[in-house]
């Protein structure tokens, strides 16, 4: 971040719409570009949040306070700012008009981050919020010394870090003369100490007598200026400062205001040139002789009494505000390194103070032990994989792997303006936004409302690989026919078909790529010689396979396909597949007249007006397995509503609905975490690890000692921790989508049986149970029989040569699709690396030959026939071919993405962490989640099935068949 490494950029060149004054002025971005600088400032903002925690710990404060200016001396709302009638022509910009008069909120304060006595050496600050209209205001922030102790953001944060909580002379000395030089260098530390001494060494008699400087520059229309606030001529003097009264400044200004108005003059200095009036150096003064001071307005704080309940209430309201120099318009945007750093810092620290953003600081022992264990396991895993280690060592090994993945495999893909932009004062968070899941996923993170919402882009665990020349190589149809096509059904004998239905039920909640309408923009795949394909039910045979293309984010019109795509579902675990992704859908599936329950008819989902897929939150790719899951959890929602209404009779129907949605969504997350996942990854290590994610690790001294050393925050279940996005804003990723391609779980044929007699009712193919045919089959067979039939039958194994035949000629939205080809092509076009690069990016050794990929000679031979080299193997093919650990239903490489993202989906969600509490869910709601699981949900709604579920396994393991039933 040193100036010698910075590249000058003329503001007019980086933003053509921003005018440049005749005296050319410069902004220089750290690292050379706004994007690089923004990333660095984001890390500095986290440092300031850590400073807040340090101050809280050292002062014993009940909550997080401001990083600076913690103690308000004066906080009023009724001040006025009136612009001079002789305002110079070049300063008449925007709201700055001759004679214009505006209301102003004023906060005067001590600068320290701790509430120390007024007589302690300190700087003093002034914050103004000029309210120029209903949608426009401007925050001006100043300090009573003309220059900053720091020339740039790096020095500023370093100073804040070493001074945090330094509330005694000894601690201040250690910080200033010991820690500071190590952080910024000896010469910079000496200059910073001089500035601090000069700024804090003077006794202050009254804040009404102080002059306050902006230190940094702002844009004032076409030119930069610095501004200052100085006492108006004739301001009454004050008594000598008290050395005993810790609140003398507050008493003095209260007494002053009780007798008369307090008046200041707002002044500006015009930019001259980069040498005399630098923009990027906050430690450099703008000399009055070089840049004369011009009075532009008068600030008047009217006479009033501060010692009343109303005044104290108003002061608390003002004190709760978050002042930010970027709360303005583009015509008055802040300039310079320090001001640009303030954008990230103020947003982060104010959100932290208000409980809307969080940071978790690992103990030093975790950092040290983690590095040692990472190195040790990295060496050990070259010879012994984690799944062959003793249980306690395997758990620590996985924890070490997850920490590496968190540091190196979360890539930020959020789209932001390239240049920092001014903005209006952010609106307050409403009570509903704070306590309810929104329909579209907004406001889960209250400090970043759009994070994870519908339309937010998919993230990345690995950098995208753009290889358009390989989109068709090898031919994906050939790959499908040779390596994926199901010759004979291979069952997964440890599971039942409910496990297959469950994961599709979940994926519909998590991810949905938006597609172009059929026939408007398509991907074409050439067919092998001699092969034809009908792309529509009544279409002619063609030599290409065609399907709808994905919508890319911000496609630029070039031929290069985008590698960034938006999620048409929310990224959060919010039950949107049941409840819908917008308010209109959500309300349409509730009972009439605003009731809390979801619509059901005779216990089943209501039919749609067109007689097709029934009414529910997500209706694509509909089949009997999804109908079972949607029906079951719609019933569960309604049962929770009834319990809430009985327990809390004064709760409104809307509150009952939203609380029930919270409860059901969290219960689904719990079931997936502690039941479905251990069922498909059936090992003791995974069972312990996933249970620990929800409720904490087992109470064995060895396991707890290991986590105490490596990751103290894992000693409790994730619901008892704070939200943590780790190294990137939360989103699900394209790589996550890839590893959850589990279509082989779907059988092609289904034996539907009667749960009472065991007799076969019907044998149907997948196509007889999907789309428009689904609900007729459900009503004919009955809900309980459908559940029973899925509970006793096996899904397919996730392996090569086991892709459902029904999905290789699947009709959807007027298209006939081979979904195996679609899966291959979309993975390539979305930039997911091929299998070997995928492995390497997840820190696994590359495979050197096809023989390393599979133990089956026939599979190896087919791989060699289809691919030129092992590096060309498609990601999905490699994941299916890989020999999984014993008990695993999918590969260890896919599992790497899973262990990263499985805990992240819980850890990032405030409704599953900091707001997983009775005040949000109600005590009944939390108790419901704690006592419930998939078995209890099924038994609650289908009591006759209780005795058929396995005694010593979960609901996703094969059930007992009714005696006398036919063959499986």
Automatic annotation (TrEMBL):
Q: Which Gene Ontology biological process is one annotated for this entry?
A: defense response
Lineage top rank: taxon: Bacteria
Transmembrane regions listed in the UniProt entry: none
A Pfam family of this chain? Catalase
| Xref: PROSITE patterns | PEROXIDASE_3
As cofactor, the record names: Ca(2+)
Where is each Catalase core domain found?
67-161
Record bears the keyword Lipid metabolism: yes
One GO MF term, please?
Answer: oxidoreductase activity, acting on single donors with incorporation of molecular oxygen, incorporation of two atoms of oxygen
Cite the entry's keywords alphabetically: Dioxygenase, Fatty acid biosynthesis, Fatty acid metabolism, Heme, Iron, Lipid biosynthesis, Lipid metabolism, Metal-binding, Oxidoreductase, Oxylipin biosynthesis, Peroxidase, Plant defense
Q: Which residues form a coiled coil?
A: none
Entries under PANTHER family matching the protein: ALPHA-DIOXYGENASE 1, PROSTAGLANDIN G/H SYNTHASE
What's this protein's name?
A: Catalase
- Write down the species: Actinocorallia herbida
């Amino acid at each position: 971040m040193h100036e010698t490494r910075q590249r000058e950029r003329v503001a007019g060149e980086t933003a053509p719409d921003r005018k440049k004054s005749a005296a050319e002025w410069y902004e220089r971005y750290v690292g050379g570009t706004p994007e690089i600088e923004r990333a660095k400032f984001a890390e500095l903002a986290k440092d300031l949040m850590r400073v807040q925690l340090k101050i809280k710990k050292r002062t014993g404060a009940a909550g997080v306070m401001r990083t600076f200016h913690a103690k308000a001396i004066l906080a009023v709302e009724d001040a006025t700012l009136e612009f001079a009638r002789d305002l110079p022509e070049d300063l008449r910009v925007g709201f700055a008009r001759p004679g214009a008069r505006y209301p102003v909120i004023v906060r005067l304060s001590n600068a320290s981050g701790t509430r120390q006595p007024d007589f302690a050496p300190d700087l003093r600050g002034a914050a103004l919020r000029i309210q120029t209209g209903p949608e426009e205001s401007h925050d001006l922030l100043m300090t009573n010394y003309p220059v900053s102790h720091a020339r740039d953001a790096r020095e500023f944060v370093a100073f804040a870090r070493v001074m945090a909580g330094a509330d005694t002379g000894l601690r201040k000395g250690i910080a200033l003369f010991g820690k500071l030089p190590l952080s910024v260098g000896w010469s910079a530390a000496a200059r910073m100490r001089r500035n601090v001494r000069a700024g804090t060494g003077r006794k202050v008699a009254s804040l009404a007598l102080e002059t306050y400087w902006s230190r940094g520059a702002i844009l004032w229309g076409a030119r930069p200026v610095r501004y200052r606030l100085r006492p108006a001529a004739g301001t009454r003097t004050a008594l000598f400062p008290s050395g005993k009264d810790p609140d003398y400044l507050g008493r003095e200004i209260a007494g002053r205001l009780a007798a008369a108005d307090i008046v200041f003059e707002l002044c500006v200095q015009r930019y001259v040139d980069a040498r005399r009036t630098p923009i990027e150096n906050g430690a450099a003064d703008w000399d009055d002789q070089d840049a004369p001071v011009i009075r532009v307005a008068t600030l008047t704080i009217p006479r009033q009494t501060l010692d009343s309940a109303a005044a104290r209430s108003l002061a608390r309201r003002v004190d709760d505000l978050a002042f930010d120099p970027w709360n303005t318009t583009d015509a008055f945007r802040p300039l310079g390194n320090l001001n640009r750093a303030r954008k990230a810092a103020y947003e982060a620290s104010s959100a932290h103070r208000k409980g809307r953003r969080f940071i978790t600081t690992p103990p030093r022992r975790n950092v040290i032990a983690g590095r040692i264990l990472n190195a040790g396991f990295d060496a050990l895993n070259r010879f012994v994989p984690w799944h062959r280690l003793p249980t306690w060592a395997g758990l620590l090994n996985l924890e070490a792997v997850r920490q590496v993945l968190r540091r190196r495999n979360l890539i930020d893909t959020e789209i932001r303006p390239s240049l920092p932009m001014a903005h209006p004062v952010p609106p307050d968070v409403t009570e509903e936004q704070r306590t309810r899941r929104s329909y579209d996923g907004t406001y889960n993170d209250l400090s970043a409302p759009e994070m994870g919402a519908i339309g937010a882009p998919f993230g990345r665990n690995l950098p995208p690989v753009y290889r358009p020349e390989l989109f068709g190589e090898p031919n994906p149809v050939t790959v499908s026919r040779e390596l994926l096509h199901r010759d004979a059904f291979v069952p997964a004998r440890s599971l039942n078909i409910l496990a297959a239905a469950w994961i599709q039920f979940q994926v519909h909640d998590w991810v949905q790529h938006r597609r172009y309408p059929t026939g408007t923009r398509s991907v074409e795949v050439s067919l092998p010689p001699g092969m034809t394909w009908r792309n529509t039910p009544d279409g002619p045979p063609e030599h290409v396979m065609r399907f709808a293309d994905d919508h890319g984010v911000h496609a630029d019109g070039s031929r290069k396909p985008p590698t960034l795509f938006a999620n048409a579902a929310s990224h959060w675990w919010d039950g949107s597949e049941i409840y819908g992704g917008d308010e209109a859908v959500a309300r349409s599936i509730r009972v009439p007249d605003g009731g809390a329950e979801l619509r059901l008819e005779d216990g089943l989902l209501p039919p749609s007006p067109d007689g097709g897929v029934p009414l529910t939150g997500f209706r694509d790719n509909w089949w009997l397995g999804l109908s079972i899951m949607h029906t079951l959890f719609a019933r569960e929602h309604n049962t929770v509503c009834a319990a809430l209404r009985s327990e809390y009779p004064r709760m409104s129907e809307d509150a009952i609905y939203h609380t029930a949605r919270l409860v059901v969504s969290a219960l689904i997350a719990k079931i997936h975490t502690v039941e479905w996942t251990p069922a498909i990854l059936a090992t003791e290590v995974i069972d312990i690890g996933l249970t620990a994610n929800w409720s904490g690790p087992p109470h064995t001294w060895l396991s707890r000692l290991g986590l105490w050393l490596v990751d103290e925050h894992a000693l409790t279940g994730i619901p008892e921790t704070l939200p943590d996005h780790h190294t990137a804003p939360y989103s699900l990723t394209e790589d996550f989508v890839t590893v959850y391609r589990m279509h082989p779980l779907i059988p092609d044929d289904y034996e539907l049986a009667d749960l009472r007699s065991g007799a076969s009712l019907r044998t149907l193919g997948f196509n007889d149970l999907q789309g428009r045919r689904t609900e007729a089959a459900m009503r004919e067979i009955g809900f309980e029989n459908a559940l029973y039939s899925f509970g006793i039958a096996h899904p397919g194994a996730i392996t090569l040569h086991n892709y459902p035949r029904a999905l290789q000629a699947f009709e959807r939205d007027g298209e006939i699709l081979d979904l195996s080809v679609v899966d291959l092509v979309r993975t390539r076009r979305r930039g997911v690396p091929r299998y070997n690069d995928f492995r390497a990016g997840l820190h696994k050794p590359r495979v050197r030959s096809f023989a390393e990929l599979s133990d089956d000679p026939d599979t190896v031979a087919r791989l060699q026939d289809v691919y030129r080299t092992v590096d060309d193997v498609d990601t999905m093919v490699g994941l299916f071919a890989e020999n999984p650990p014993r008990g695993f239903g999918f590969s260890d490489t896919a599992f790497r993405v899973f262990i990263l993202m499985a805990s992240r989906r819980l850890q990032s969600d405030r409704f599953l962490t900091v707001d997983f509490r009775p005040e949000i869910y109600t005590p009944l709601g939390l108790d419901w989640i704690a006592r419930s699981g998939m078995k209890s949900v099924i038994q609650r709604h289908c009591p006759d099935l209780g005795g058929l579920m396995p005694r010593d396994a979960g609901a996703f393991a094969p059930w007992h068949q009714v005696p006398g039933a036919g063959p499986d």
